[in-house]
Amino acid sequence: MAKKRRPQTKAAAPQLTGGEIPAVGAREPCPCGSGRRYKACHGRAAAQAVTELVRRPFEGLPGECDWVALRELVPAATAPLTLGDGLPADVPSLTLATVLPMAWPALRRDNGAVLLGLQNDTPSGDVSRDLADVLLRALKARPGSPVAAERTAADAPRLQDLLDLDAPFVPEVHDGFEFWVEDAGNQSPEVAASLERANSAALPTARLTGVEAAYWCETPEKNHLRWVMPHSEERLLDALARLHAAGASSLGEDTRLVGSFRAHGLVVPVWDLPGAMRAEECEKPAAAFAERLGEALESTAPLTADERRARSGFTNRQVTLN
């Protein structure tokens, strides 16, 4: 038999007023005055708000596609960040990093500079809100200390609320993780060994300069180009299918569009490349493909039978990365 729900009488309805609700335990009375436990009253809505997945957490930020790439694809990269209200006087710089030592969410250097790690597990379903929480605490942290992740309030600010949305987002891809330390050439043997281990595990990666958010990477068997695209999924898959059916989806001889995956609400097409094809050799083919894609995106004609088969193939080979 289904458990009966407790009726909500008018007298028991929450009577909230302005101001913050004090922090309470899940089993304590809800401070709104309803007479119910916090977890069964306002705690339920708060818990749902912080766990609900935000499909496009970086939407609205300059360089959304590059944010996704640095979060999911790129081993070692940094990008300077600009706060909308400017940095505190004792924080000389703010830098986003793909990953930090010991997977720290953030680090306040001895000189006061802040590094914010992007490739970390986050406690809620909104990566942007969790990163913003870590960032705010890092700006106030004691110099020379890491910053841990904490549970984020459902109404806490997001990166979109903190960063200057007019400032360009310009990632710099690195060959290794020397950016972790201020003087990489003058470190103890232990730190040098740690850097060497981290560097050896990172796949060589480069960002193309002629198109946005396209990243070449080298693997032992073959190279790849993974290109984060901002277009709506349905429109992009239609356009890719049109190009593939027309034999125009490759990036040159011995290259092949093998499929795509979703990451943080965006679609990322993937090409297999010959092992000898370097990043600089992808520049012209990628620029030419971008032109063909632009034309295909403008088409509103129904897909042909061949195009529908191509689209079905892409759909079946998709995976999702959150």
The largest β sheet comes out as: 6 strands, mixed
Sheet with the most strands: spatial strand order: 5-3-4-2-1-6
Number of strands: 12
**Which of globular, elongated, flat, extended, rod-shaped describes the shape?**
globular
pLDDT averaged residue by residue: 86
Question: Helices and strands, in N-to-C order?
Answer: HHEEEEHEHEHEEEHEEHHE
Helical fraction: 25-40%
Distance between the termini: 37 Å
Beta-strand content bin? 15-25%
Helix and strand topology:
Blueprint: H1 42-51, H2 64-72, E1 77-80, E2 94-97, E3 106-108, E4 114-117, H3 127-140, E5 145-147, H4 159-162, E6 172-173, H5 189-201, E7 205-207, E8 214-218, E9 223-227, H6 233-245, E10 256-263, E11 266-273, H7 283-298, H8 305-316, E12 320-321
Parallel strand pairs: 2-4, 10-12
Antiparallel strand pairs: 1-2, 1-6, 3-4, 3-5, 7-8, 8-9, 9-11, 10-11
Helix pairs in contact: 6-7, 6-8
Detailed description of the structure:
The chain has 322 residues and is of the alpha+beta class. The protein is 28% helix and 16% strand. It is built from eight helices and twelve strands. Strands 5-3-4-2-1-6 form a six-stranded mixed β-sheet, with helices on one face. Helix 6 packs across helix 7 (283-298) and helix 6 (233-245) packs across helix 8 (305-316). Residues 1-24 have low confidence and may be disordered.
Q: Any descriptors?
A:
about 325 residues; alpha+beta; six-stranded mixed sheet; globular; disordered N terminus
